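hey so u asked for the seq, here:
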Amino acid sequence: MIRILLLLLVISLTGCVTTGDYTSLRNDLNQVMITQSQLRKDVSALRYQISRLNEKISGAGSREVLNAIRQSQVSLRDEMDSIRSELQSLQARMDESTYRVEKSLKESETERALLRAQLESLTEELNALKQRLTGLEERIAASPATVTTTAKPQPSTPEEFYKRALDILKEGKTAEARKEFQEFIKRFPDSDLTDNAQFWIAESYFKEGNYEEAILSYETLIKEYPKSNKIPDAMLKQAYAFLKLGDKNTTKVILSNIIERFPDSEAARNAEKKLKELK
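ran it, structure tokens below
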């Protein structure tokens, strides 16, 4: 039983030692000490019995009995020596583990102290920044306004709104123009220019090189505004977008569809040229 307990204690020491492991190890070692004390009492009792037996068989005792007793004593001594050796080894391991635990605890405390110091420093910096911000706000509030800004006049008609968005697109501000056209569609969904706005949204994506979004936006125009005069141009640009993505088959299908559906359109003539180039 003692050997099993010692083996478990040694195995527990081979892993990472925590404060809980250290306390458990101390308890197990105390139990081993108690067991050793009891074993010593048992050995003393056995020696007393051997002494009484020696008195009974003095001079005429059986050699076999004496040899058996001697062997028993030798076995007990060996057992005791083995236990002492294992206890010494265990004590050495426990001392090493104690050192590791105490060192780990000290290092953890140092790290916590460092973190607290850093947190206090950051808190001081934050408070200083807040004070500076408050001071600036007070100065701004106290100083007279030196600059007056005039808001841009808002378009009063759908045509003016549309023209402003188109002018922004011509300036190369694709993202800003796209937002303007999207806002135009929300405000004036029944306008005759709504399909055009959708076309320019797709064009803004195409100009940015975002061909996937351009294809989807052209498709929105084709499906939601089936009577729009922008459909041939939307299909042509959709074919160009697929070609940019390396999908020649889909490009050819769309170009052929344009020629079939809108044979007299400028888009159809451009589609024929592009098909010849691809062939």
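Confidence is low (pLDDT under 50) at residues 4-17, 145-149. The radius of gyration is 47 Å.
lmk if thats what u needed
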